[in-house]
Specification:
It is built from 5 helices and 7 strands; from the N terminus they run αββββαββαβαα. The chain has about 170 residues and is α+β, with helices and mostly antiparallel strands. The longest helix has 23 residues.
């Protein structure tokens, strides 16, 4: 019974948050859904209103599949959200028509922030201007959490360039 009351309070606060965000943003569309799959640490699939929506976490970039700490980052995301209800706050769409969003957990924490805090993602200013993300990343770096244990950790955008360069050199 107490969980039911907590969920109602969560829903009420979420509606207040959504209303406030809608008034202050030209694109903020929010909805609730259940996370049904994890494509990558920063890409999830959410079932909402009878359809599955591919959601890319805005403002962060986690290690690519063949990159160090990718498996740990995916496991981290799975442990936090797989099978759970979340609130998706849509910010934009990318070139593939994926939803770019901040994902809010039932405890009102941001999944985007949690991945950065745990050291399983980089802050990417080109994706979202959230002033909290660079601070969280610096704290994770200083504490050598997650991928920050590796002194030579490469952001995915640089890793992809290096991999493409190596493939071109093989030709």
């Amino acid at each position: 019974m107490k969980n039911h009351i907590k969920f109602k309070v969560f829903c009420f606060l979420s509606i207040v948050l959504i209303s406030w965000m809608s008034a202050t943003s030209s694109y903020a569309i929010s909805y609730f859904g259940k996370v049904v799959a994890i494509s990558d640490a920063d890409t999830i699939k959410v079932l909402s209103f009878g359809r599955i929506i591919k959601v890319r976490l805005i403002g962060i970039d986690s290690p690519d599949k063949h990159q160090a700490y990718s498996k740990e980052a995916i496991e981290f995301t799975e442990n936090i959200v797989l099978g759970k209800r979340v609130m998706v706050i849509t910010k934009d769409e990318d070139v593939l028509d994926w939803t770019l969003a901040e994902v809010i957990l039932s405890d009102n924490k941001s999944l985007n922030h949690e991945l950065i805090k745990a050291g399983f993602a980089w802050w990417n200013i080109h994706l979202f201007e959230d002033t909290t993300l660079p601070i969280l990343e610096m704290e994770a770096r200083n504490r050598k959490l997650g991928l920050w244990q590796d002194k030579h950790a490469l952001p995915p955008w640089e890793f992809s360039k290096a991999a493409n360069y190596k493939n071109l050199a093989k030709r």
